[in-house]
Amino acid sequence: MLRTVKPKNARSKRVLDARMPKEVEDVRTAIFVKGTHTGEVLNGVMKDLMALKRPAAISFSKKNDIHPFDSTSSSTSTSSLEFWANKNDASLFLVGQSNKKRPNSLIFVRMYDGRVLDMLEVGVEGFTGIADLKTPKSTPGHKPLMHFASELFDTHPRFMQLKSMLMSFFNGEEVDEICLPGIEHVISVSLAPTPPSLNTTSDTPTPLPKVHLRTYTIKLLSSGTRIPRVELVPMGPSLDMVLRRHEAADAEMLKQALRKPKMKKKEVEQGLGKKHKNLEVDEMGDLRGRVHVGAQDLNKLQTRKMKGLKDDEERPGKRSKTSS
């Protein structure tokens, strides 16, 4: 069961109302937490990822003894994450931890209702920073264009979770329209060659392919037409990652997180929400429907009875010409 917090005064009620689920959610705030041991590579990765996430990013400068996946300290780590999430109104965490068994580990944690929803750990095996590439950079705070170049992101459960986590992490403000120069950079996520045994059902464990994350700036050039020619310039960071531990979301909590509010009557009339058959909205915004009926026999159609429509023989008191 999800918890319910009752406000004690008007001020706390306004704070809780601001954190209530909305039809259009605000930008997700991410907190970057360093573990007890982080090397130079991991510090550079977290610094560059925070540069892509800004301004919705909070960095903890001090090191913290936090291990979200370890069973011995799971309660302490979970309570710390929940405390930080409620205090900073954040729903995403990126925890960096490096040890001998799992070097250069990044743990993505997603929260819902102040509690941990799911977690995903990746290991960084290759890194090229933003400062290493002397190329133009994008403006901080701009919404990126996400590109996932593999069918496994829609079929394999582990890569589906990775795609959902990255979309939640880098998705910026919800916008209806955007001009073409407003898209300044692209985050492309691809996979290494997929082993053939991964696409078949076999009992033997198959190592998952590596994940390649690349960031490019978009350069618009003249093409002689209205559509410009697009070139991608490497901006950084560039990451080569492997999937490690993960924790799936609880079914009941995930159901609550994916629940959508009922749409208003005005929005349904405008054609939003579920598409109804034979209903459309014209240019004036009026809702029009089409009704299909079966073939009608007009001879059997019931009309209004009038004396003028009857035959002379059927009229009472009327003599025929032959009888006179």
TrEMBL record:
<dbReference type="Pfam" id="PF04427">
    <property type="entry name" value="Brix"/>
</dbReference>
<feature type="compositionally biased region" description="Basic and acidic residues">
    <location>
        <begin position="308"/>
        <end position="317"/>
    </location>
</feature>
<dbReference type="GO" id="GO:0000463">
    <property type="term" value="P:maturation of LSU-rRNA from tricistronic rRNA transcript (SSU-rRNA, 5.8S rRNA, LSU-rRNA)"/>
</dbReference>
<protein>
    <recommendedName>
        <fullName>Ribosome production factor 2 homolog</fullName>
    </recommendedName>
</protein>
<feature type="region of interest" description="Disordered">
    <location>
        <begin position="260"/>
        <end position="324"/>
    </location>
</feature>
<feature type="domain" description="Brix">
    <location>
        <begin position="28"/>
        <end position="252"/>
    </location>
</feature>
<dbReference type="InterPro" id="IPR039770">
    <property type="entry name" value="Rpf2"/>
</dbReference>
<dbReference type="GO" id="GO:0019843">
    <property type="term" value="F:rRNA binding"/>
</dbReference>
<comment type="similarity">
    <text>Belongs to the RPF2 family.</text>
</comment>
<dbReference type="GO" id="GO:0005730">
    <property type="term" value="C:nucleolus"/>
</dbReference>
<keyword id="KW-0539">Nucleus</keyword>
<dbReference type="GO" id="GO:0000027">
    <property type="term" value="P:ribosomal large subunit assembly"/>
</dbReference>
<dbReference type="InterPro" id="IPR007109">
    <property type="entry name" value="Brix"/>
</dbReference>
